[in-house]
Design goal:
Elements lengths: L2 H29 L6 E5 L6 H17 L3 E5 L6 H8 L7 E5 L2 H8 L11 E11 L1 E4 L8 H10 L7 E3 L5 H13 L5 E3 L3 H9 L5 E4 L1 H10 L3 E5 L25 E9 L4 H16 L1 H9 L3 E2 L4 H22 L5
Parallel strand pairs: 1-2, 1-3, 6-7, 6-8
Antiparallel strand pairs: 3-10, 4-10, 4-11, 5-8, 5-9
Helix pairs in contact: 1-9, 2-9, 4-11
Protein backbone atom coordinates (compact mmCIF):
# COMPACT_ATOMS: atom_id res chain seq x y z
CA UNK A 1 0.00 0.00 0.00
CA UNK A 2 1.24 3.43 -0.87
CA UNK A 3 2.40 5.16 2.33
CA UNK A 4 1.68 8.63 0.96
CA UNK A 5 -1.93 7.63 0.44
CA UNK A 6 -2.34 6.11 3.91
CA UNK A 7 -1.07 9.21 5.67
CA UNK A 8 -3.74 11.65 4.49
CA UNK A 9 -6.40 9.03 5.14
CA UNK A 10 -5.13 8.53 8.68
CA UNK A 11 -4.92 12.28 9.25
CA UNK A 12 -8.43 12.72 7.92
CA UNK A 13 -9.63 9.96 10.22
CA UNK A 14 -7.96 11.57 13.22
CA UNK A 15 -9.44 14.94 12.30
CA UNK A 16 -12.91 13.42 12.03
CA UNK A 17 -12.46 11.66 15.36
CA UNK A 18 -11.34 14.90 17.05
CA UNK A 19 -14.29 16.76 15.54
CA UNK A 20 -16.69 14.16 16.95
CA UNK A 21 -14.96 14.34 20.34
CA UNK A 22 -15.18 18.14 20.42
CA UNK A 23 -18.78 18.09 19.26
CA UNK A 24 -19.65 15.50 21.89
CA UNK A 25 -17.94 17.65 24.49
CA UNK A 26 -19.97 20.66 23.42
CA UNK A 27 -23.21 18.68 23.60
CA UNK A 28 -22.25 17.32 27.00
CA UNK A 29 -21.55 20.83 28.26
CA UNK A 30 -24.87 22.06 26.92
CA UNK A 31 -26.62 19.17 28.68
CA UNK A 32 -24.94 20.23 31.95
CA UNK A 33 -25.63 23.91 31.36
CA UNK A 34 -26.21 25.92 33.41
CA UNK A 35 -24.29 24.50 36.34
CA UNK A 36 -24.11 27.73 38.35
CA UNK A 37 -25.34 31.32 38.50
CA UNK A 38 -25.63 33.13 35.15
CA UNK A 39 -24.29 36.68 35.20
CA UNK A 40 -25.79 39.01 32.62
CA UNK A 41 -23.69 42.11 32.02
CA UNK A 42 -25.79 44.99 30.71
CA UNK A 43 -23.98 47.87 29.03
CA UNK A 44 -26.61 50.43 30.11
CA UNK A 45 -27.79 51.93 33.38
CA UNK A 46 -30.79 50.92 35.51
CA UNK A 47 -34.07 51.85 33.84
CA UNK A 48 -32.63 51.97 30.33
CA UNK A 49 -34.12 49.71 27.62
CA UNK A 50 -31.40 47.07 27.74
CA UNK A 51 -31.72 46.87 31.51
CA UNK A 52 -35.51 46.62 31.36
CA UNK A 53 -35.42 43.80 28.83
CA UNK A 54 -32.69 41.90 30.70
CA UNK A 55 -34.79 42.02 33.86
CA UNK A 56 -37.94 41.02 32.02
CA UNK A 57 -36.20 37.97 30.58
CA UNK A 58 -34.61 37.32 33.97
CA UNK A 59 -37.92 36.10 35.40
CA UNK A 60 -38.49 33.69 32.52
CA UNK A 61 -34.93 32.34 32.48
CA UNK A 62 -34.86 31.55 36.20
CA UNK A 63 -38.03 29.50 35.66
CA UNK A 64 -36.54 27.70 32.64
CA UNK A 65 -33.01 27.02 33.93
CA UNK A 66 -33.49 26.82 37.68
CA UNK A 67 -30.38 28.92 38.29
CA UNK A 68 -29.92 32.48 39.47
CA UNK A 69 -29.89 35.03 36.64
CA UNK A 70 -28.11 38.13 37.98
CA UNK A 71 -28.24 41.42 36.05
CA UNK A 72 -25.08 43.50 36.44
CA UNK A 73 -25.23 47.05 35.02
CA UNK A 74 -22.00 48.46 33.56
CA UNK A 75 -23.16 51.69 31.88
CA UNK A 76 -19.88 53.58 31.58
CA UNK A 77 -17.99 54.28 28.33
CA UNK A 78 -20.91 53.49 25.99
CA UNK A 79 -20.97 49.88 27.13
CA UNK A 80 -17.28 49.24 26.45
CA UNK A 81 -16.53 48.33 30.08
CA UNK A 82 -19.25 45.69 30.21
CA UNK A 83 -18.22 44.31 26.83
CA UNK A 84 -14.62 44.01 28.00
CA UNK A 85 -15.73 42.02 31.06
CA UNK A 86 -17.58 39.50 28.90
CA UNK A 87 -14.87 39.29 26.24
CA UNK A 88 -12.42 38.20 28.98
CA UNK A 89 -14.81 35.79 30.69
CA UNK A 90 -14.74 32.02 30.46
CA UNK A 91 -16.59 30.85 27.31
CA UNK A 92 -18.97 28.57 29.15
CA UNK A 93 -22.26 30.48 28.84
CA UNK A 94 -22.37 31.61 32.46
CA UNK A 95 -21.39 35.20 31.63
CA UNK A 96 -23.57 36.86 29.01
CA UNK A 97 -23.81 40.33 27.54
CA UNK A 98 -26.79 42.51 26.67
CA UNK A 99 -25.85 45.49 24.54
CA UNK A 100 -27.46 48.25 22.56
CA UNK A 101 -26.49 49.60 19.16
CA UNK A 102 -23.43 51.30 20.65
CA UNK A 103 -21.80 47.87 20.55
CA UNK A 104 -21.48 48.25 16.76
CA UNK A 105 -20.83 52.00 16.91
CA UNK A 106 -17.83 51.81 19.25
CA UNK A 107 -15.48 50.30 16.64
CA UNK A 108 -16.23 53.28 14.39
CA UNK A 109 -15.26 55.89 16.94
CA UNK A 110 -12.80 54.37 19.36
CA UNK A 111 -9.14 54.63 18.42
CA UNK A 112 -8.50 51.41 20.30
CA UNK A 113 -10.86 48.96 21.98
CA UNK A 114 -9.75 46.36 24.56
CA UNK A 115 -11.53 43.73 22.44
CA UNK A 116 -12.50 43.01 18.83
CA UNK A 117 -16.25 43.50 18.46
CA UNK A 118 -16.61 41.11 15.52
CA UNK A 119 -14.15 38.47 16.78
CA UNK A 120 -14.45 38.29 20.59
CA UNK A 121 -18.19 37.69 20.93
CA UNK A 122 -20.60 34.98 19.84
CA UNK A 123 -24.05 36.22 18.96
CA UNK A 124 -26.98 34.53 20.68
CA UNK A 125 -30.01 36.46 19.46
CA UNK A 126 -31.28 39.88 18.63
CA UNK A 127 -33.90 40.83 21.19
CA UNK A 128 -35.84 43.89 20.16
CA UNK A 129 -35.55 47.31 18.58
CA UNK A 130 -37.00 50.79 18.93
CA UNK A 131 -36.69 53.89 16.79
CA UNK A 132 -35.46 57.11 18.32
CA UNK A 133 -37.73 60.06 19.08
CA UNK A 134 -36.12 63.46 18.61
CA UNK A 135 -37.62 65.69 21.29
CA UNK A 136 -37.07 69.18 22.70
CA UNK A 137 -37.99 71.17 25.76
CA UNK A 138 -41.47 72.67 25.23
CA UNK A 139 -40.10 76.22 25.35
CA UNK A 140 -38.00 75.61 22.23
CA UNK A 141 -39.35 77.05 18.97
CA UNK A 142 -40.58 74.76 16.20
CA UNK A 143 -43.46 72.30 15.82
CA UNK A 144 -41.27 69.80 13.97
CA UNK A 145 -37.60 69.20 13.28
CA UNK A 146 -37.51 71.31 10.11
CA UNK A 147 -38.97 74.31 11.94
CA UNK A 148 -36.61 73.78 14.87
CA UNK A 149 -33.57 73.82 12.57
CA UNK A 150 -34.79 76.96 10.80
CA UNK A 151 -35.33 78.72 14.14
CA UNK A 152 -31.93 77.63 15.44
CA UNK A 153 -30.22 78.87 12.27
CA UNK A 154 -31.93 82.26 12.51
CA UNK A 155 -30.68 82.68 16.07
CA UNK A 156 -27.20 81.12 16.09
CA UNK A 157 -26.29 82.85 19.34
CA UNK A 158 -29.07 81.00 21.14
CA UNK A 159 -27.82 78.64 23.82
CA UNK A 160 -28.78 75.20 22.54
CA UNK A 161 -27.30 71.85 23.52
CA UNK A 162 -28.33 68.22 23.15
CA UNK A 163 -27.99 65.31 25.55
CA UNK A 164 -27.36 61.61 25.09
CA UNK A 165 -26.67 58.55 27.26
CA UNK A 166 -23.00 58.89 26.29
CA UNK A 167 -20.52 59.50 23.50
CA UNK A 168 -20.81 56.77 20.88
CA UNK A 169 -24.39 55.85 21.67
CA UNK A 170 -27.01 55.86 18.94
CA UNK A 171 -28.58 58.86 20.64
CA UNK A 172 -25.29 60.71 20.21
CA UNK A 173 -25.11 59.82 16.51
CA UNK A 174 -28.68 60.92 15.85
CA UNK A 175 -27.83 64.22 17.52
CA UNK A 176 -24.73 64.49 15.34
CA UNK A 177 -26.83 63.85 12.24
CA UNK A 178 -29.12 66.74 13.16
CA UNK A 179 -26.27 69.10 14.02
CA UNK A 180 -24.16 68.36 10.95
CA UNK A 181 -26.89 67.99 8.35
CA UNK A 182 -28.78 70.93 9.82
CA UNK A 183 -25.74 73.18 9.93
CA UNK A 184 -26.18 73.94 13.63
CA UNK A 185 -23.87 74.96 16.44
CA UNK A 186 -25.12 72.77 19.26
CA UNK A 187 -22.72 71.16 21.76
CA UNK A 188 -23.20 67.62 23.02
CA UNK A 189 -23.70 66.93 26.74
CA UNK A 190 -23.17 63.23 27.53
CA UNK A 191 -24.67 61.43 30.52
CA UNK A 192 -24.33 57.94 31.96
CA UNK A 193 -27.64 56.54 30.79
CA UNK A 194 -30.91 57.59 29.21
CA UNK A 195 -32.63 58.52 32.49
CA UNK A 196 -30.24 61.38 33.38
CA UNK A 197 -30.16 62.47 29.72
CA UNK A 198 -33.93 63.02 29.74
CA UNK A 199 -33.84 64.59 33.19
CA UNK A 200 -31.47 67.23 31.80
CA UNK A 201 -34.02 67.93 29.05
CA UNK A 202 -36.89 68.20 31.54
CA UNK A 203 -34.85 70.72 33.53
CA UNK A 204 -34.03 72.67 30.33
CA UNK A 205 -30.33 72.15 30.99
CA UNK A 206 -30.23 70.86 27.42
CA UNK A 207 -32.80 71.62 24.76
CA UNK A 208 -32.83 68.48 22.59
CA UNK A 209 -32.31 64.76 22.91
CA UNK A 210 -32.92 61.61 20.89
CA UNK A 211 -34.07 58.63 22.94
CA UNK A 212 -36.30 55.59 22.58
CA UNK A 213 -40.08 55.72 23.16
CA UNK A 214 -39.79 53.63 26.32
CA UNK A 215 -38.02 56.56 27.96
CA UNK A 216 -39.66 59.56 26.27
CA UNK A 217 -43.32 58.61 25.80
CA UNK A 218 -44.42 59.23 29.42
CA UNK A 219 -42.94 62.74 29.23
CA UNK A 220 -44.46 63.37 25.80
CA UNK A 221 -47.90 62.34 27.06
CA UNK A 222 -47.56 64.68 30.06
CA UNK A 223 -46.48 67.57 27.84
CA UNK A 224 -43.11 67.88 29.58
CA UNK A 225 -41.24 67.41 26.28
CA UNK A 226 -42.17 68.06 22.65
CA UNK A 227 -41.52 65.46 19.91
CA UNK A 228 -40.16 66.78 16.60
CA UNK A 229 -39.41 63.65 14.55
CA UNK A 230 -38.90 59.89 14.70
CA UNK A 231 -36.05 57.86 13.19
CA UNK A 232 -38.25 54.95 12.05
CA UNK A 233 -39.09 54.13 8.44
CA UNK A 234 -42.70 55.21 9.08
CA UNK A 235 -44.62 57.25 11.62
CA UNK A 236 -45.32 55.63 14.97
CA UNK A 237 -48.86 54.54 15.80
CA UNK A 238 -48.61 56.36 19.14
CA UNK A 239 -47.35 59.56 17.46
CA UNK A 240 -49.21 59.75 14.15
CA UNK A 241 -48.66 63.50 13.80
CA UNK A 242 -44.88 63.33 14.29
CA UNK A 243 -42.97 63.01 10.97
CA UNK A 244 -40.04 60.76 10.20
CA UNK A 245 -36.53 62.07 9.64
CA UNK A 246 -36.92 61.33 5.96
CA UNK A 247 -40.08 63.44 5.85
CA UNK A 248 -38.05 66.24 7.42
CA UNK A 249 -35.53 66.14 4.56
CA UNK A 250 -32.96 63.75 6.05
CA UNK A 251 -32.15 61.36 3.21
CA UNK A 252 -30.85 58.57 5.43
CA UNK A 253 -31.97 55.02 6.24
CA UNK A 254 -34.15 54.46 9.28
CA UNK A 255 -32.25 54.25 12.55
CA UNK A 256 -33.21 51.77 15.25
CA UNK A 257 -31.71 51.25 18.65
CA UNK A 258 -31.38 47.47 18.77
CA UNK A 259 -30.57 45.13 21.62
CA UNK A 260 -28.83 41.79 21.46
CA UNK A 261 -27.57 38.92 23.61
CA UNK A 262 -23.96 37.79 23.27
CA UNK A 263 -21.57 35.34 24.90
CA UNK A 264 -17.78 35.20 24.84
CA UNK A 265 -16.29 33.84 21.62
CA UNK A 266 -15.53 30.09 21.75
CA UNK A 267 -18.64 29.38 23.82
CA UNK A 268 -19.74 25.91 22.61
CA UNK A 269 -22.28 26.14 19.77
CA UNK A 270 -24.57 23.74 21.63
CA UNK A 271 -24.69 26.16 24.58
CA UNK A 272 -25.26 29.12 22.25
CA UNK A 273 -28.11 27.27 20.52
CA UNK A 274 -29.70 26.34 23.84
CA UNK A 275 -29.57 29.95 25.02
CA UNK A 276 -30.97 31.12 21.69
CA UNK A 277 -33.85 28.66 21.98
CA UNK A 278 -34.76 29.69 25.52
CA UNK A 279 -34.35 33.44 25.00
CA UNK A 280 -36.40 33.31 21.80
CA UNK A 281 -39.10 31.36 23.62
CA UNK A 282 -39.11 33.94 26.43
CA UNK A 283 -39.48 36.77 23.92
CA UNK A 284 -42.44 35.16 22.19
CA UNK A 285 -44.44 34.30 25.30
CA UNK A 286 -47.72 36.27 25.17
CA UNK A 287 -47.08 38.22 28.38
CA UNK A 288 -43.56 39.16 27.32
CA UNK A 289 -44.59 40.07 23.79
CA UNK A 290 -47.40 42.27 25.16
CA UNK A 291 -45.03 44.07 27.52
CA UNK A 292 -42.59 44.72 24.68
CA UNK A 293 -45.35 46.05 22.43
CA UNK A 294 -46.88 48.19 25.19
CA UNK A 295 -43.53 49.86 25.84
CA UNK A 296 -42.80 50.52 22.17
CA UNK A 297 -40.46 47.65 21.42
CA UNK A 298 -40.58 45.52 18.30
CA UNK A 299 -39.46 41.93 18.92
CA UNK A 300 -36.77 40.91 16.42
CA UNK A 301 -35.41 37.56 17.59
CA UNK A 302 -32.77 36.05 15.32
CA UNK A 303 -30.46 33.08 14.92
CA UNK A 304 -26.91 33.35 16.27
CA UNK A 305 -25.47 33.48 12.74
CA UNK A 306 -27.90 36.23 11.72
CA UNK A 307 -26.85 38.35 14.68
CA UNK A 308 -23.14 37.89 13.91
CA UNK A 309 -23.70 39.02 10.30
CA UNK A 310 -25.88 41.93 11.40
CA UNK A 311 -23.19 43.26 13.74
CA UNK A 312 -20.62 43.29 10.92
CA UNK A 313 -23.08 45.20 8.71
CA UNK A 314 -23.77 47.75 11.46
CA UNK A 315 -20.05 48.29 12.11
CA UNK A 316 -19.52 49.07 8.44
CA UNK A 317 -22.51 51.44 8.37
CA UNK A 318 -21.32 53.58 11.26
CA UNK A 319 -17.69 53.56 10.21
CA UNK A 320 -18.79 55.05 6.90
CA UNK A 321 -20.87 57.72 8.64
CA UNK A 322 -18.08 58.69 11.03
CA UNK A 323 -15.61 58.92 8.18
CA UNK A 324 -17.92 60.95 5.94
CA UNK A 325 -18.67 63.60 8.59
CA UNK A 326 -15.44 63.37 10.59
CA UNK A 327 -17.40 62.72 13.77
CA UNK A 328 -15.28 62.98 16.89
CA UNK A 329 -15.84 60.75 19.91
CA UNK A 330 -13.93 62.83 22.45
Amino acid sequence: MNFHRIRPLVCAGVAMLMAHVLAAGGVAQAQNFPSKQINVIVGTGPGDPGDMIARLIQIRMVERFGQSWVVDNRPAASGKIGSQVVARSAPDGHTLLVVLSAHAVNPAGAMELPYDTARDFAGISLIARQPMIIAVHPTVKGANLKEFIEAARSNPSGKLAYSSPGVGTLSFLVGEQIVRRGGLEMPHVPFRGGAPAVQALLANEVQLTALVPAILMPHIKSGAVKPLAVSADQRLADLPDVPTLREMGFDIPAIYNWMGFFAPAATPPATINLLNKEITAALTEPATAKWLADTGFETVASSPAELDRFVVTEIDRWRNFVKEFNVRFD
